[in-house]
Design goal:
The chain is mostly helical. The protein has nine helices and two strands. It comes from Emiliania huxleyi (Coccolithophore).
């Protein structure tokens, strides 16, 4: 059986120091990214492929703002987009519809029953792109939840990682009972690990060693950061939900492990 090549996201690097300017954060890149992904929603249940590719390319810029440790994740996004574009460019007008693009691959006999997908193909690129986005949704939701609890006083500022971009004081546990590394591990276990083979899992294990104490601030204030995390998750959850529904309907949900 053919083995699919999947992507393993790389966690973000250390944030800026408290006194350093962060002009990139002032642009609210997560909110901009959410806007791009929102434009992908086509009709009641479809996805605009051309706009999806553009949104993913824009999201690579967001990953770059997080830091150089996201380079491998960015490369996987680029690889997945190339797989999608290969089929999309055969009929760019018709195949703006994700459903029509995937239906065309099925009709051409590219894939086998039981969700056995040919790689490379648009189906594989869309599948792994969806899984990669779901991974980040999981992490961002947890960051938002912890941030809201801290705002309401239900947990102390020391409990849980903060999307603040500020340096953590030395001494003791920098992020309390739940570290950012733990959030990344949980997100990986819930989304990508079930589909990653030994090589991808080993790559993730190495990447986990570089997870910073805090997630970098990508907005002028912590409140705006929480709003942007939530806005991004809201729209991307809609998007991946549509993608999953079509992929399941067309028997394109390949559950084999990557290398």
């Amino acid at each position: 059986r053919e083995r699919l090549r999947g992507g393993t996201p790389v966690p973000p690097p250390s944030p800026r120091g408290e006194g350093e300017p962060n002009m990139l954060a002032d642009a609210r890149p997560l909110r901009i990214s959410a806007g791009h992904f929102g434009k992908c929603l086509s009709g009641d249940a479809d996805v605009d492929v051309a706009l999806f590719i553009a949104a993913c390319q824009n999201y690579c810029k967001v990953l770059a703002l997080i830091g150089p440790f996201t380079l491998l994740s960015t490369r996987e996004v680029i690889s997945n987009m190339k797989k999608i574009e290969h089929s999309f460019e055969l009929a760019p007008v018709r195949y703006r519809s994700m459903r029509e693009l995937l239906e065309a691959e099925v009709a051409a006999g590219m894939h086998q029953p039981g969700g056995v997908l040919v790689d490379p193909s648009a189906a594989v690129g869309l599948l792994w792109a969806r899984r990669g986005l779901t991974f980040w949704v999981h992490i961002f939701r947890e960051l938002s939840r912890i941030g809201r609890q801290r705002q309401s006083g239900r947990i102390s500022p020391a409990e849980g990682p903060t999307p603040s971009g500020r340096s953590t004081p030395r001494g003791g546990s920098p992020t309390g009972d739940v570290s950012l590394k733990e959030l990344v591990e949980r997100g990986y276990a819930a989304t990508l690990q079930p589909f990653n083979g030994w090589l991808s899992q080993n790559s993730m294990s190495l990447a986990l060693r570089a997870v910073p104490q805090e997630f970098p601030r990508l907005a002028p204030t912590q409140l705006e950061m929480l709003e942007d995390l939530e806005a991004w998750c809201d729209v991307v959850e809609q998007l991946v939900g549509r993608m999953a529904a079509v992929q399941l309907e067309l028997d394109l949900e390949d559950r084999r492990k990557s290398i």
